[in-house]
Amino acid sequence: TSETKKTLHYINEYISLNNIDIIIAHEPENVAFGTISGFTQNKHTINVDLNVTHKNFKKEFPLALGKILAHELYHAIRNQKNKYPSTLLESCLDEGLSVHFEQEVFGGKPPHYAVRLNSVELTKVLKLARKEFASKKYIHDDWFFGENTKKIPKSAGYCIGYYLVKKILKDNLETSPSKLVAKNTKYFLSKLKKYI
């Protein structure tokens, strides 16, 4: 659609978009809440699922489409420039960067899932996460969806990532998520020593 083309052109002003297929489809069963959701299949393919029957679809669609495209395209471009995240810390940072990129491009508040934990809950879950940050055997659904455990709150991985990237951006005012898209894990570890 023309809305999609306009949005992609706008995002491309922040990060160069290359070799990415975007599949947009009416798939309401894949939209957990609201009008839209997204998923990065790999470094060359993203999915955007819509619920066009949602009562607020027409009103929310333009901004929601922009944010979801920014988020998923950021994942794809990072995966083109780095390897796919393999540790808990890498996955948290990848999500935190993508959420902050949404805000860099479109402004507004972060999505609820990235800030749903209060400071006490975040401190507690960070302590737990530190034990698994380097693990390649962490259970992704536990950390990001809180499905199978009572120890890890829902969306903990998103909240940790958002918090850590916020610290990096606050400590390095000259940078932005768009400037960090190609940075590897070593770079982030050097910036996060006092936080992790």
Structure in words:
By secondary structure, this protein is mainly alpha-helical. Helix content is 51%, strand content 10%. The protein contains 8 helices and 3 strands, in the order αβββααααααα. Strands 1-3-2 form a 3-stranded mixed beta sheet, covered by helices on one side. β2 and β3 form a beta hairpin. α1 crosses α2, α2 crosses α3 and α3 packs across α6. The protein is globular, with a radius of gyration of 16 Å. 35% of the residues are buried. The mean pLDDT is 94.
Short description:
The chain has 196 residues and is mainly alpha-helical.
Helix count, DSSP H or I runs of 4 or more residues? 8
Globally, the shape reads globular
- Element order, helices and strands? HEEEHHHHHHH
Extended strand count: 3
Average of per-residue pLDDT values: 94
Unreliable runs? none
**Assembly status:** single chain
Strand neighbour order, sheet with most strands: 1-3-2
Keywords:
mainly alpha; 51% helix; 196 residues; 3-stranded mixed beta sheet; globular; 3 strands
Topology summary:
Elements: H1 2-12, E1 21-26, E2 36-42, E3 45-50, H2 57-81, H3 88-106, H4 119-130, H5 140-145, H6 156-171, H7 177-180, H8 185-191
Parallel strand pairs: 1-3
Antiparallel strand pairs: 2-3
Helix pairs in contact: 1-2, 2-3, 3-6
